[in-house]
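This part of the workshop introduces the protein records we will be handling. An example says more than a description, so a record of this kind follows:
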Amino acid sequence: MWKKTRLIKKNMKKIISLAFALIMMGGSALAQETIQLPQPDMKMLKMTVAKAMQQRRSGREYVKGKSISDKQLSTILWAAVGINDPKTGRLTTPTAVNMQDIKVYVCNEKGVWLYSAKANNLTQVSTQDLRPSLTARQMFVMDAPVTLLLVSEQSKNRRPNERYGAMDAGYVSQDIYLACAAMGLKTVARAMMDQEAVKKALNLKEGDYPMLNHPIGYGK
């Protein structure tokens, strides 16, 4: 009986320690929800490239509380880092030495999701609202219903290069701008954010760099 009681206490300590660790991780280890996105709608991008370039603007005022649809989000993500040739797996945006290093995280009030181009889905990696760490005192970010966070995942690359990652993030950023212009949405590319808070919340590895974030929504 005494041994059994000691064993129960030992196991309880382990459970409490594990629960505390999960809380300290911001709930990221608990978040495993997967959202299947609808197929990207090419009709939403029917605007000519020339017209989209004419319409492209950096928007910093958003209609608070007006969400974008899952189909809109899926189409923007496809434009950003989607697969444009299923046979070869080629992406919509180029990357230096074909690193394909840019990962896009979708951030909103309910948490953070990682986009998979191959599966066309979102996997929740944190239940934390990361947007306050992205504002850098520019509170208009909180008015946008969604923010895309671009991370250069250099830790898995055979030739890590932060400068290449910055270039690649720029390519993705431009496609986000053009897609939003074609769809009548507003966005702005921002490098400002609390880098350390972002890395901690997403459990990023050494060599993974948060590059840019794009609030997206309807402009005022």
User: Anything to note?
Assistant: Residues 84 and 117 are 10 Å apart (CA to CA).
